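Take one protein record:
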Amino acid sequence: MKGFLDTARQIAVEAGDYLEKNFGQISQVIKKGDRNLATNLDREVESLIVKKIQKEFPSHGVIAEEKERFRTEADFVWIIDPLDGTHNFIRGIDVFGVSLGLWDRKQDEFVLGVVYIPKDKELYYAAKGEGAYKNIERISVSEVRYMPEASGSFDSSIRYSPQVMLEALGRISVEAFNIRMFGSSVRQLTYLAEGKLDFVVEFHDRPWDFAGSVCIVKEAGGVFKSLGNEKVNPKTIGYIASNSYLYPQLKEIISEVVK
């Protein structure tokens, strides 16, 4: 697994530095529907990442956000978001990152994750059983035990009705100390992994949004489950991630809203 991780870290840094170099220099914005946008840089970076994975791991599969799909039934599948936080990137907000997660079909779980935040030169990574790291320092989730003391992040989408979204947000807002929104899944999940946030609730994140962060959060001591309290996988949409103390409290709140 070390060879996989070393290569993934190199790829993520190269891709992120390319994004930072070209920040503010978008030549094309593509509408994908459902309030989703992409840029020429999303696609350029995706191509860069995929070519390197194909070269280094020719037997592996790939699922990437923009268009790349191949060997999706392979034992190992890389799930990639070349630019998480595209809407921030388009608006000149430098909160974005690169995400690579490795799905092991035989183990039925994400066994490796790498996230790079180019603005801050922060490289987060983890492999199953080996701990989670930010650059060279080991990280861990917070030990906040009760929702009135907890700071978290919440996001929603058109997947559920506005009533469901508002009810979920309202209930969490009443229970939690405060809620923040970052416009980037990798930013909020890496903050969770290093204890700067205590929970994240997402109703419509797709696998490429969170794949690189699953192993990082879990190896940092956190819990990462679907909205229905199931193990996340490449078909999951939406999740609850938190430390182990808060997860039962969040699960109860969400289960009362999402039937």
